[in-house]
Amino acid sequence: MPEQKHWYAAYTRPRWEKKVAAQLEKKGLGYYCPLTKVRRRWSDRFKVVEEPLFKSYVFVYITEEEKSRVRLTDGVVNFVYWQGKPAVIKPAEIETIRRFLKEYHDVQARPLQVAPGERVRIAAGVLMDAEGVVQWVRGNRVFVKLETLGY
Q1: 16, 57 in Cβ contact below 8 A?
Q2: pLDDT per residue as tens digits for the range 26-56
Q3: Rg (CA), the chain
Q4: CB-based contacts of 117: which residues, under 8 Å, 6+ apart?
Q5: Bridge partners, 89 (sequence order)
Q6: DSSP 22-68
Q7: Cβ proximity of 106 and 46 under 8 Å
Q8: Spatial distance between the Cα atoms of 97 and 105, rounded to a whole number of angstroms
Q9: Rounded-to-integer distance, Cα 62 and Cα 106, Å
Q10: Which residues of 28-54 are buried (b: 16+ CB within 10 A; e: fewer)?
């Protein structure tokens, strides 16, 4: 039985996303480097260029054995980890990114900044659509008071 493949996020050196993607293709590994078309201004003209949507990240579709081949790719720093293991990304999330980029152009992805006192709505999971107030932020953890649920 062939080993199952999963999606992972590979963290790359800054501005190496396209180079890493090209090397992964040469190695015959599955990858996805979402690109968006952006209009940039040079001193004498405007030009439309393709830039990675997620800076310093390339998604790879690989088996457990292929992880070392990805790590040994020039420009790859490591995988993105969650609870001590490379984080597995749901195929539906990759497909959502692909569909979104087909429909929209000049897209930007920016880190979400929240501060204590802000009202937020939970976008996914069991508490989806619940609204609350940010109590505090520490690192990558955000604690939200959900008044309607008493949590």
Answers
A1: no
A2: 999 999 999 988 888 888 999 888 899 999 9
A3: 19
A4: 133, 134
A5: 7
A6: HHHHHTT-EEE--EEEEEEE-SS-EEEEEEESSTTEEEEEE-STTHH
A7: no
A8: 12
A9: 29
A10: ebebbbbbbeeeeeeeeeeeeeeebbe
Q: What is the pLDDT of residues 80-132, one digit of tens each?
A: 988 889 999 999 999 988 988 888 777 777 777 888 888 888 776 667 777 88
How sure is the predictor about 10, in pLDDT bands with cuts at 50, 70 and 90? very high
* Site of tokens 């609204």: 131
| 33 touches 21 (CB < 8 A) | yes
Rounded Cα–Cα distance for residues 113 and 134 (Å): 11
Can you give the pTM of this predicted structure?
0.74
Question: How many other β-carbons are positioned within 10 Å of the β-carbon of residue 6?
Answer: 17
